[in-house]
Amino acid sequence: MSANPNGAAAQPFARHPIRMTLNGQPRQLDVLPWTTLLDLLREQLDLVGSKKGCDHGQCGACTVLRDGKRVNACLTLAVMCDGAELTTIEGLADGDQLHPMQQAFIKHDAFQCGYCTPGQICSAVGLANEGRAHDGAQIQELMSGNLCRCGAYSNIRDAIEEALPACRRSGGE
Ligand code: FES
Ligand code: FES
C-alpha cells in the first residue's frame, strides 16, 4: 500500500461484485466502478468481437445486447449490468449454426474490412427484437447509429431486410 504526500496510507479502490449471464453462461465478477462493459469484455474476459471504434458512443462498433436491447458497451458501465443477460457477437451462433442475421450478412456480402460487423449484427438483432423496422428505409434510419467506414451500407440493409422475419420468428437472440 502506498502513502500519499500527507503521509496517510492510500486506500485500494473498492471493486464491486456483479452477477450476469454472459452468452448463456452465469458469471460472477468483481469490477471497478469506472470499468466500461466494453473494457470488461475485451480486456478482462478476452471477448474481443465487440470492437472499440470511437469509445464515445458515436460509431456503434461496440454494440452488444443487454436483456435483448442493443446498447453501446463503451457507454455502459459494467456495474450497470448486474443481474443482466448479455449477448455479444460470440454468443449469437448456436454451436456451429450461425444466427440468421450472421448468415444473411455472409450471403449479402455485407462487410469489407469487417471492423464494424459485430456491432452491426448485434444492433440488427436488437432491431429485430424491437419489431419496429418494416422496410429498407426504416432499417436505414434505425441502424443509423452503426457507422461503416467501408460504406457497405446497401448490402448491410439488404442483409437485415432479409433476416428480420427469421429473427422475429426465432425470438431474436
Ligand atoms: S466504440 Fe462504442 S460507439 Fe464507438
Ligand atoms: S466493413 Fe469496414 S467498417 Fe464496416
From TrEMBL:
Pfam family of the protein (one): Fer2
GO molecular function: 2 iron, 2 sulfur cluster binding; metal ion binding; oxidoreductase activity, acting on the aldehyde or oxo group of donors
Keywords for this protein: 2Fe-2S, Iron, Iron-sulfur, Metal-binding, Oxidoreductase
InterPro entries per the UniProt record, alphabetical: 2Fe-2S-bd, 2Fe-2S-bd_dom_sf, 2Fe-2S_ferredoxin-like_sf, 2Fe-2S_ferredoxin-type, 2Fe2S_fd_BS, Aldehyde_Oxdr_Iron-Sulfur, Beta-grasp_dom_sf
Gene3D superfamilies to which the protein is assigned, alphabetical: 3.10.20.30, [2Fe-2S]-binding domain (1.10.150.120)
Organism superkingdom: Bacteria
Location of the 2Fe-2S ferredoxin-type domain: 16-92
Database matches in PANTHER family: OXIDOREDUCTASE WITH IRON-SULFUR SUBUNIT, OXIDOREDUCTASE, IRON-SULPHUR BINDING SUBUNIT-RELATED-RELATED
Protein name in UniProt: (2Fe-2S)-binding protein
Organism listed in the record: Pseudomonas paralactis
